[in-house]
């Protein structure tokens, strides 16, 4: 019985005994459902929390106690939470692997993995690329993780296109400076994308603004249209982690180099690979 409970021995059905706790304390479509699809395509099982109010965190249970319990019930935890550092605290409280599905405005590392995989599939190289990253660079955690990962490849440079209020945080720019990786910052969309191989657009993170009038003032400033794209190479790869609000005009969707839905699809094989590596023992 103990062997079955621990998932170590179940004859022909052994793969069924891996369980992922899918812990999403902030909304998600792509990350949660692609992780769950990845588990199921591997023949494994999922238990799900789709909002904090369904859990004992809403009864003031600590993250640490909650993590211990989720680690008892499952073999791996995938967690999204609004607080920076919350996933790291969870990982310290359980002996099961914990995957960061984003922690506040900090990082979204599995998004970076699928983004890099997408860049490779679209461009057939990860070297000597100029990547323009656009819009909410302050709160857009996918951009932070992407820079940390793409910055490892030879000859990669960055253009950060955003208003002053939403500039790339110091933790990211200091990483680039320390590693002598070229980057420029601009508020001009058209000149910022002139020599780009990849344009990576992000959403303005309305939910992170404490002053909603600030959001209202800034929204609609950076919209990628076919007219804006006339300033870029015809084959520039257009990416967006999604969801979008209105920062990529639907007229762009039909361009062959609009890669954002392929990018979302790439989340499944990347997350299957990651789960296999961590669970296949
Ligand atoms: N890209 C991404 O993280 O999307 P979701 O918020 O829908 O998971």
Q: What ligand molecules are bound, each kind once?
A: phosphoric acid mono(formamide)ester
Q: Please state roughly what percent of the residues sit in beta strands, choosing from under 5%, 5-15%, 15-25%, 25-35%, 35-45% or over 45%.
A: 15-25%
Q: Biggest sheet, strands in spatial order?
A: 7-6-5-8-9
Arithmetic mean of pLDDT:
92
Description of the molecule:
This protein is α/β, with parallel strands linked by helices. The protein is built from eleven helices and nine strands. Strands 7-6-5-8-9 form a five-stranded parallel sheet. Strand 6, helix 7 and strand 7 form a beta-alpha-beta unit. The radius of gyration is 20 Å and the shape is globular. It starts with a helix and ends with a helix. The structure holds phosphoric acid mono(formamide)ester (CP). Phosphoric acid mono(formamide)ester binds next to helix 2.
Features:
single chain; 281 residues; 9 strands; alpha/beta; 4-stranded parallel sheet; 5-stranded parallel sheet
Q: Which SSEs are present, and which pair or pack?
A:
Blueprint: H1 2-6, E1 19-24, H2 30-41, E2 45-49, H3 63-73, E3 76-81, H4 86-93, E4 98-103, H5 109-123, E5 130-134, H6 141-150, E6 157-161, H7 170-178, E7 183-186, H8 189-192, E8 198-201, H9 212-218, H10 226-229, E9 237-239, H11 260-279
Parallel strand pairs: 1-2, 1-3, 3-4, 5-6, 5-8, 6-7, 8-9
The structure holds phosphoric acid mono(formamide)ester (CP).
Phosphoric acid mono(formamide)ester binds next to α2.
């Amino acid at each position: 019985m103990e062997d079955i409970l621990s998932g170590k021995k179940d004859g022909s059905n052994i793969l069924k005994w891996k369980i992922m706790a899918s812990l999403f304390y902030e909304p998600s479509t792509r990350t949660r459902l692609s992780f769950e699809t990845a588990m199921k395509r591997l023949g494994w099982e999922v238990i799900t929390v789709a909002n904090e109010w369904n859990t004992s965190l809403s009864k003031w249970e600590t993250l640490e106690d909650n993590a211990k319990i989720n680690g008892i019930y499952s073999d791996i935890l995938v967690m999204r939470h609004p607080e920076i550092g919350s996933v790291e605290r969870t990982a310290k409280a359980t002996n099961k692997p914990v995957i960061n599905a984003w922690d506040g405005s900090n990082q979204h590392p599995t998004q970076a993995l699928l983004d890099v995989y997408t860049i490779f599939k679209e461009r057939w190289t990860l070297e000597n690329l100029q990547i323009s990253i656009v819009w909410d660079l302050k709160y857009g955690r996918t951009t932070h993780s992407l820079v940390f990962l793409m910055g490892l490849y030879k000859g990669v440079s960055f253009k950060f296109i955003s208003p002053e209020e939403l500039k790339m945080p110091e933790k990211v720019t200091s990483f680039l400076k320390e590693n002598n990786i070229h980057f420029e910052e601009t508020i001009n969309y058209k000149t910022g994308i002139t020599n780009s191989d990849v344009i990576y657009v992000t959403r303005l993170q309305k939910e992170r603004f404490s002053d909603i009038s600030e959001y209202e003032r800034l929204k609609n400033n950076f919209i990628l249209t076919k007219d804006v794209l006339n300033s870029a190479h015809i084959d520039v790869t257009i990416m967006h982690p999604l969801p979008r609000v209105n920062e990529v005009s639907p007229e762009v969707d039909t361009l062959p180099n609009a890669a954002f839905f392929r990018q979302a699809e790439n989340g499944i094989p990347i997350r299957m690979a990651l789960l296999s590596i961590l669970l296949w023992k």
